[in-house]
Amino acid sequence: MNQETSLKSSMSRGLVPSETQVCVIGLGYIGLPTASVLATKGFHVYGMDVRADVVDTINDGRIHIEEPDLDIVVRSAVNSGQLKAGYEPQAADIFILCVPTPIRPDHSPDLSYVEQASQAIRPYVQPGNLIILESTSPPQTTEQIVVPNAIPPELKVGEDVFVAHCPERVLPGRILLEVVQNDRVVGGVTPNCTEKAKTFYESFVNGNVLATSAIAAEVTKLVENSYRDVNIAFANELSVLSDRLGIDPWEIIELANRHPRVNILSPGPGVGGHCISVDPWFLVHTAPEHTPLIRMAREVNDAKPHFVVDHIADLAAEFAAPKIGCLGLTYKADVDDLRESPSLDIVRALYEKQVGEMLVCDPYISPENFTDFPLHDLVDVLEQSHILVLLTDHRQFKEVPRRILQEKVIVDTRGVWR
Q1: Are residues 292 and 398 part of one domain?
Q2: Short-list 184, 226, 173, 30, CA closest to 113
Q3: Pairing relation of β-strands 83-86 and 94-97?
Q4: What is the pLDDT of residue 7?
Q5: Which of 184, 182, 203, 178 is closest to 93 using CA atoms?
Q6: Phi, psi of 130 (to 5 degrees)
Q7: Looking at the domain assignment, is residue 417 inside a domain?
Q8: Do 146 and 131 touch, CB atoms closer than 8 A?
């Protein structure tokens, strides 16, 4: 049975994982968990990444990112022979693209990784294949970037090969659970493409698999994160206003949320991560004249770290030789993810301003792999600092004794030590 017949046969009766080869392009925060979960479901999975250290680490049954229980799943998948990694793509029934989609300094989307990944699999694409873009992308990326770069001209999309977009919807720290339990939005370039992709996801997803078009799937993911960004911007703007008025923003939010139709989110030092701080710009770039609110929310959240830096500088000016303890560098609690982190931006800005001696601690960042500035032990930071700044609400920081905090000037950007 050739590859085309095998895939079409398995699709028609529901995918048989043991007969299906999956090639995952990109083994980062989304690609590696996805590959390892598919391997545990019985699929034969080959993961491709251009980073030699990543490939070697995975083939050794270890992981290069911090995610609960991922090390156990990867080790099991590799030891069973269901998961292997390499530097080049290989032939498969299903290709899943999980590569970065960052923004440039001017906030325009950088789709070079998607284009390169699509071009990389092109020599391996055969009749019957399903190609899925999971990377969060601007509208029409699937049709305008993946299709022309990945599909050989002699193959017709929707008849010979099938192309779809299925954006990831997982939260770091819960990826292994949510990649299986969450509802998934699947959008094909054609109805046949949607059907094939839906069949695949239904073979391992316990949540609902919701069918739509490729562009609708792309926009849905962007809307989800833009909605959150707009609401966080309201909370961050409220926190700045509250500082001006000398009141506690978390108290105001807590009281306002007692209204049955009000649900204000929590403010913070800004917005980070690979989704909320990036995705809204994709919509703004697509239609700038129709997205003024989304743009303004981005600008409010991007400005929040500058407000925090100025506030700390004002406090430091009250000391002759201030020591400033900064707790947390990652963009969210209990992960090692530094992408677009406002906490990291704040610390860098404080170093540049030279407002005082800096003592920085993050238990999830390895001092050996981090070279921007020195990292310190939590005990030393707590003992030596005059000003203590909570930037990321790691569990270790939540447990700091209140008697220690009473001796410090506190800047709590997360509302943890109220």
Answers
A1: yes
A2: 30
A3: unpaired
A4: 46
A5: 203
A6: -115, 125
A7: no
A8: yes
SS3 417: coil
Instruction: Record the tokens describing residue 315, joined without a space.
Output: 């406090």
The whole-angstrom distance between residue 184's C-alpha and the CA centroid of its chain comes to 16
Segment (H or E) for 24: strand 21-25
39/301 Cα distance (integer angstroms)? 39
pLDDT score at 12: 44
Q: Which residue has the tokens 């700044």?
A: 389
In a shared domain, residues 47 and 78 = yes
Catalytic-residue membership of 221: yes
Q: Is residue 248 part of a domain?
A: yes
* CA 181 – CA 170 distance, rounded (Å): 10
Domain limits at 278? 223-412
How far is 300 from 278, CA to CA, in rounded Å? 14
Q: What are the start-end ranges of the E strands in 42-88?
A: 44-48, 83-86
Q: Which two tokens stand for residue 61?
A: 């049954």
CATH assignment of the domain containing 283: 3.40.50.720
43 is written with which tokens? 């699929």
- Residue 3 confidence (pLDDT): 44
pLDDT at 14: 54
pLDDT in tens, 13-32: 456 787 899 999 999 999 99
Residues 367 and 245 in one domain: yes
Q: How many CB atoms sit inside 10 A of residue 35's CB?
A: 31
Candidate list 41, 221, 304, 332, residue with the active-site label: 221
Residue 88, number of CB atoms within 10 A of its CB: 11
275 part of the active site? yes
Q: Do strands 184-188 and 162-165 pair parallel, antiparallel, or not at all (unpaired)?
A: antiparallel
Question: Is 20 found in the same domain as 161?
Answer: yes
Averaged confidence pLDDT in the chain: 94
Contact by Cβ (8 Å): 272, 228: no
If asked whether residues 300 and 252 sit together in one domain, one would say yes
Q: Do residue 186 and residue 332 come from a single domain?
A: no
193, 275, 326, 361: the active-site residue: 275
Three-class SS state of 178: helix
User: Are residue 309 and residue 172 in the same domain, yes or no?
Assistant: no
- Count of domains observed in the chain: 2
DSSP of 304-358 = HHHHHHHHHHHHHTTSSS-EEEEE--SSSTTS---TT-HHHHHHHHHHHHT-SEE
Task: Decide if 225 contacts 276 (C-beta within 8 A).
Answer: yes
